[in-house]
Amino acid sequence: MNIKQLETFLLEAKLSGDDRFYYSQGRFADRRSLLVKITTDEGLVGWGESGVSMPLEHVQTFIHDALAPRLLGKSALQTEPVWHDLYSFSRDFGRKATPIDAMSGIDIALWDIRGKEAGKPIHLLMGGAFRSTVRAYATGLYYHEKDLTDPVGAVSNVQEEACRHRDAGFSAIKGKIGLLAVQDDIRRMAAAREAVGDEFLLMTDANHGYNRHTARTVGRALHELGFYWFEEPLVPEDIEGLASLRQELEIAIAAGECEYTRYGMLDLLRSQAVDILQPDISACGGLSEGQKIVALASSHQTPVCLHVWGSGISVAAALQLTAAIPPMPHTANPRAPENEPLFEFDRTRNPLRDDLIAGGFNLEVDQLRIPQGHGLGVEIDEDALKHHCVTSRLSQ
Ligand code: CA
């Protein structure tokens, strides 16, 4: 079964009013995703997603102009040789960012085809599921325009939103920091703690908004507030800084969403820079590479909790791999987060996540169910796809 055609769809959903939000690195006024659709000569169709938000036109160009000519006519079922061919071809000018984003969506689409061809969900082809549901955490507590000039109001906004996630069934929330003054952000996180109580699982994410000194101050305050992990305190290049923070702070250090492939993740692991590794399947090289990263992490006794931020295709791909991540370590009574993965479930407004997949993803108590259908186990809503598509390209 060979690859007959490759299509990409650049999707966009504009956000308006209070749906717009800020994090430490800027403002989100829209949500964007690049979907990859591969069709075989036998008519099977697989879907993938390439890259994580931000500009995606360059990823689309790379897919069609650089990778598609090598891909057309290749076996659709042989994900390893295809991955190896694309990586080796792009090594001299690739290895990170755009070329690997591009490969990720192709690899996910081929796994979707493999699953559909076998009549099984992807996690069964990966060796089987350790779980049929996964404890999800709400990613939220972002900033809104008015928070920038009203840090007191920002505190009550955080309290209100934390209560909303708890009332929706979540037992864990990750909130954003790094945009306001340190004391204002600590007040926001203290307010979140006060709102949900001492037993509730809380994490926080600075999106690499601090230097080493500030990160130490913030990390100590977060530990006092009982936060579980401190995500991307430092820029991703500062692996040495992450490793020293990890020695200095009690709170767990999480990072990995800005790193690529087994080679990039190995740098983090070998340097003992993280307590929790967070690859993004739509960016790090796809499901093929995700499996290798999970194996590497296990050899360094480091749990993996995937970074998940895209459309419903990214969510489905991440759920499939999460099913196949072994407990870290084994116990007779597995519990998240001590030895089971947590699953990132972004709660900001994103029609590309909520409307694109027929049926969507629904929290059951505080868990998400691993899709059991063939391949990724989800169906694209073609009307939603057409509605949000701003540019499509076809290679055949
Ligand atoms: Ca993050």
How would you characterize the overall build of this protein?
With 396 residues, the chain is α/β, with parallel strands linked by helices. The protein contains 13 helices and 14 strands. The protein has helices at residues 57-71, 79-90, 98-118, 122-125, 151-167, 182-196, 212-224, 239-248, 261-270, 286-299, 312-323, 351-354, 382-388, and strands spanning 3-14, 21-23, 26-28, 30-40, 45-49, 133-140, 172-176, 201-205, 229-231, 252-255, 276-277, 342-346, 367-369, 389-395. The strands form three sheets. Strands 6, 7, 8, 9, 10, 11, 12 and 13 form an eight-stranded mixed sheet that branches. Helix 1 (57-71) packs across helix 3 (98-118) and helix 2 packs antiparallel against helix 3. It starts with a strand and ends with a strand. The model has no long low-confidence stretch (mean pLDDT 97). Residues 205, 207, 231-232, 257, 307 line the site of calcium ion (CA).
Defining key terms:
single chain, 396 residues, alpha/beta, eight-stranded mixed sheet, four-stranded antiparallel sheet, 13 helices, 39% helix, binds calcium ion
Q: Termini distance?
A: 15 Å
Shape: globular
Mean of residue pLDDT values: 97
Oligomer: single chain
The rounded Rg comes to 20 Å
Give the biggest sheet. 8 strands, mixed
- Bound chemical compounds: calcium ion
In total, how many beta strands?
A: 14
Provide the succession of SSEs.
EEEEEHHHHEHEHEHEHEHEHHEHEHE
Structural class: alpha/beta
Strand content: 15-25%
Unreliable stretches (pLDDT < 50, length at least 5) are: none
Helix count from the secondary structure assignment: 13
Please bin the fraction of helical residues.
Answer: 25-40%
